Amino acid sequence: MIRFENVVKKYPRGTRPALDRVSVEVERGEFAFVVGPSGSGKSTMLRLVMREETPTSGTVLVAGHDLGAMPLRKVPRLRRQMGVVFQDFRLLPGKTVYQNVAYALQVIGKSSLSIRRVVPETLEMVGLTGMEKRLPHQLSGGEQQRVAIARAVVNKPMILLCDEPTGNLDPAISLEIVRLLERINRTGTTVVMATHNDTIVNDLRRRVIELADGRIVRDDEHGTYMPAS
Amino acid sequence: MSPRFLLGEIWTGIRRNASMTVSVVLVTMVSMYLLGLGLLAQRQADTMKGYWYDRVQVSIYLCTDNSSRPNCGTGAVTEEQKSTLLTQLEALPEVKQVFYESEEEAYSRFQDQFRNSPLAGNIQVGDIPQSYRVQLEDPSRFGVVVSQFEGAAGVAYVQDQERVLNRFFTVINYITLFSVLLAALMVLAAILLMATTIRQSAFSRRREIGIMRLVGASNFTIRVPFVIETLIAAVLGALLAFGLLWATVHYIFSRFLNQVVLDQALIGDSDVFAVAPLMFAGVVALAVLTSTVTLWRYLRV
Questions:
Q1: How many residue contacts between A and B have a Cβ separation below 8 Å?
Q2: Residues A164 and A75 in one domain
Q3: Would you call B215 an interface residue with chain A, using a CB distance cutoff of 8 Å?
Q4: CATH code at A71?
């Protein structure tokens, strides 16, 4: 589903490459953690998959498409096949829970009929039934992240990318969020989650790809994570 | 994207950026008003040209008893001289038609044309000499007539209407030039203001734009609300300019000037309608081009 072949990514002002000769593959339906300290290249990996960045050298393949060779006008179609969740939720403050999730479908031209059917389903799946009319600031952090997840998966993407989704949440809530991601994964969605939350990684015993200074230093099938600090 | 959703987005954009939108409307209005004035001034010139060219182009005034012209030393024109002149005129290939105007006719025409002017009371029969009024095939061939008849026996002087009118047209041309130059400056201001407004609007919606890009909205979807917002503001400005222009022509030209100046040779409401399509097409092109270029520069994928 996602394949990196000898990927190097240098930023214009970076002293060393953000990613240095990274080769890794994540299969369809897999659940993988990408771990490592800040600045180790986790976010860069996700940004390359989203085609927010292109590799300096090497190849990034998503669902068989070489992203480096993909023309810009095809990028929106690629992004419709993936959902993205961030540490800071990125909800629209003026829109309700329901509107935030529906927005993702409205802007890609879904009919209002299918939106009215799919959005409540998705909200129910993430456990937010009854909160449709709330505004983001009336929700707890965990609830806001659930809205963000609902928005990311409402279009039934093949891939769900999560960049530190539990970074702003306390441990108990974090675990609930990751359990939700696991449930989404069980429906066939490939989930890649960048994190440095060792408790969660160690609880779940899933695949762990560890980065340090832009290189893959470890790739365990049922790994753990022991941060250096 | 459903039309209702799109309208909602556009409305939100305009509301959040209301003051900038209003300024775009006003600047567009002033620039289009000036442009319209320039175009109308030109149409006024054309109208008058058409009016006059259909009528007399050259007047050959004949000598009277008390004429002070050097050529009239021998006194008033004789019937013999008159018929010679007429034969010569009609023999010229440049001449289309010749009318004779007696002193009485000249007097009554003047009285009629200047009926609303205090001038009318000061003129008596005989003040305006009798004349041959010559219509030319080609108004610009006036020189031929002048060279042949200036100085001929019984002719006081030859007057080219075009030369008289040309002075007036020069003034109109300057008005046109001036208003079009001002309009060009205002259009430049409008373009810059539109570009700034779009950037401001894009900035105030950066969260939404971020989400749209994230979920794979097409460039078209992301950009079209900005284009339509700009278009709405610009067309609103053009509508106001049109209204203002109509009012100018209707109340100042048709109602007021028409009573003061010679009648019939003035532009009217229909001329405003004639320049309107040009104004609107210009405004639409301006808004679409400006917003497309601005978005292309500031809203990359």
A1: 58
A2: yes
A3: yes
A4: 3.40.50.300
| Chain B CB within 8 Å of residue A8 CB | no
Instruction: Give me the residue from A90, A112, A155 closest to B210, CB to CB.
Output: A90
pLDDT means over runs of 10, chain A (229 residues): 94 88 94 92 94 94 93 92 94 95 93 94 94 95 96 96 93 93 95 92 91 92 76
Instruction: Give the Cα separation of B142 and B146 in Å (integer).
Output: 7
**A83 to chain B, closest Cα gap in Å:** 7
For the record, the structure tokens of B248 come out as: 């100018």
Minimal CA separation from A157 to chain B, in Å: 10
Same domain, B175 and B287: yes
Contact between chains at B5 and A106 (C-beta distance less than 8 A): yes
Using a CB–CB cutoff of 8 Å, tell me whether B212 touches chain A. yes
State how far residue A76 is from chain B, nearest Cα, in angstroms.
4
Structural domain count of chain B: 2
Reported as a single tens digit per residue, the pLDDT across B53-102 is 666 578 888 888 777 777 777 777 888 888 888 888 888 888 888 888 88
Q: Are A129 and A121 in contact (CB under 8 A)?
A: no
In a domain, A46, yes or no: yes
Q: What are the tens digits of pLDDT across the range B203-221? A: 888 899 999 999 999 888 8
Which residues touch A221 (CB under 8 Å, ≥6 apart)? A207
C-alpha distances out from residue B165 to B24, B109, B130, B171, Å = 40, 19, 21, 10
Residues A181 and A77 in one domain: yes
Listed residues B127, B146, B164: the one ending a domain = B164
Choose the mutation target among A103, A107, A112, A144 for the interface with B, i.e. most B CBs under 10 Å.
Answer: A107
A77 contact B CB<8A: yes
- DSSP letter string over A178-206? HHHHHHHHHTT-EEEEEE--HHHHHHH--
Complex ipTM: 0.89
Same domain as A189, residue A101: no
Whether chain B has a CB inside 8 Å of the CB on A74: the answer is no
Domain hosting residue A113, numbered range: 94-156
Residues A75 and A2 in one domain: yes
Is residue A190 one of the residues assigned to a domain? yes
In chain B the beta strands, taken as DSSP E runs, fall at 58-62, 95-101, 131-136, 155-160
Do the chains contact at A90 and B219, CB–CB below 8 Å? Answer: no
Domain count, chain A: 2
Closest Cα partner for A191 from A149, A225, A224? A149
Same domain? For B127 and B143 the reply is yes
Domain encompassing residue B17? 3-52+166-298
Residues B290 and B249 in one domain: yes
